[in-house]
Write a structure and sequence with these properties.
heterodimer, A: 114 residues, mainly beta, 0% helix, 51% strand, B: mainly beta, six-stranded mixed β-sheet
Amino acid sequence: DAGITQSPRYKITETGRQVTLMCHQTWSHSYMFWYRQDLGHGLRLIYYSAAADITDKGEVPDGYVVSRSKTENFPLTLESATRSQTSVYFCASSTSGASYNEQFFGPGTRLTVL
Amino acid sequence: DQQVKQNSPSLSVQEGRISILNCDYTNSMFDYFLWYKKYPAEGPTFLISISSIKDKNEDGRFTVFLNKSAKHLSLHIVPSQPGDSAVYFCAASDSGTYKYIFGTGTRLKVLA
């Protein structure tokens, strides 16, 4: 099916473990984004990518690593998970970087770090 | 420091009445504003947007108003329907970047 998907939808892990959240879009959108949603903070941008092999930091990048070897995939890795990274993570994509181009969001991954 | 603020965490409205959701921003460089709607266990979906060159944009039951001098925008839903019950996020962007800054969201409940 066309669209933007995230996997897993739910994940429980332990402090110190490495976790990778996957994001896949079928639209060939150039831009992709990772956000986290926390109570009292709304959605905050973690990392974004303008194209394959081009990534840059957002508001809250510490503790996260991204890569984008293919246009359609944008995985987010927590190298050593901490309890403060318990959150709901959303991936989004957009045709361009222009602010008037809406971002399309995936369904989210709920991550719990024990 | 929150650059985009939604000061009402929740709002309840009777079906058929008007829902008014408010959003304030502090950064005068913001020139594009959007509203997203989010249902539980789903990602946010785009609802309506407005450029700073306008003060109003309408799309069916949804109207967004922008008051640049007050750094305030509002979303009006008329008439409200039970299916409108969701969390609404406002977002702001500086056209010089492609990053959205989101507010904390307002949970709207439309009572049948």
